[in-house]
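Session log. Operator J.P. requested a structure for one protein chain; no other inputs attached. Running the standard single-chain path with token output.
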Amino acid sequence: QVQLVESGGGLVQAGGSLRLSCAASGSFFSINPMGWYRQTPGKQRDLVASISSVGSISYADSVNGRFTLSRDNTKNTVYLQMNSLKAEDTAVYYCYANVWKRDGTADSYWGQGTQVTVSS
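Structure written below.
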């Protein structure tokens, strides 16, 4: 019913930048919140950044000041601008969306994940 399409992952040197995009498509009333998580082998999938429908943004301490999350509500898309990348940022990044339907119910959706590799 709902698909999250991720793009922008890749290989970059430490200190470089990448921008991730996640576009939601399908049938839904609204998305709140929406953002990005990341996961490395053997570790928990942790929040990177999320944004609410009114623009409130939460960042993980490890990325605060380096990453910027934005949202285009008209396109149902979030962007994660990642600057000053570190080797520790290497992970699979997953788009997350809490999708509300017109009947008042909500479901969580995950993208398939996009690999970000930062070489040191």
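Operator note: The chain has no helices and eleven strands.
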